[in-house]
Amino acid sequence: MKKLLLLVLTLILSTALAACGGDKANNEKADGKGNEEQVKGEDQGADEGQASEEEWPEELINPEAANNEYFIKVHDLLKENGYEVGELTPSDYSFFNAKMAAQIEINGEDMFTLQMYDLDPADENLEHARKTGMGTAEYAGEKGEIPVLVIDHYYFFLAEGHPNYEDVYKLLEEKLK
Hints:
Blueprint: H1 2-20, H2 24-31, H3 35-54, H4 69-80, E1 89-90, E2 100-106, E3 109-118, H5 126-132, E4 134-139, E5 142-147, E6 149-151, E7 154-157, H6 165-176
Protein name: Lipoprotein
Keywords: Signal
Signal peptide: 1-18
């Protein structure tokens, strides 16, 4: 009986050691010997992340959007009506296949900026958006519809989570239509 118990304990111990043990690479990393590769890999990942952030496709942001008279008019309108507005910043216009786009932070809500898109007046999706209030957007090859306010050949988008969502849209409709 003692031999059987000793054999079972040996099997359990060897199974535990096999399960908890690792290969040589894992042991070296635990000892600190393999950390050079890990640190180099982390540095490369950080560099890649920085590079991709720095290499934002410039062709998707038209810097002239900051000088667009209509966008400036909207910025001034919001300011004149008591909203605390951030600066007018150019943004990615490819989402709605626009000519240019800009955004404005309203009342400190940096997660819910007012996004404005200047579309070609002959854009095929413009009439659909006027009728339905839904602008056809494309992102990463996928198409979908996003609720937008359409005034002339401009799309306005402000997320419903913004505390001044209804008031801002009402102001834009009253003053710009």
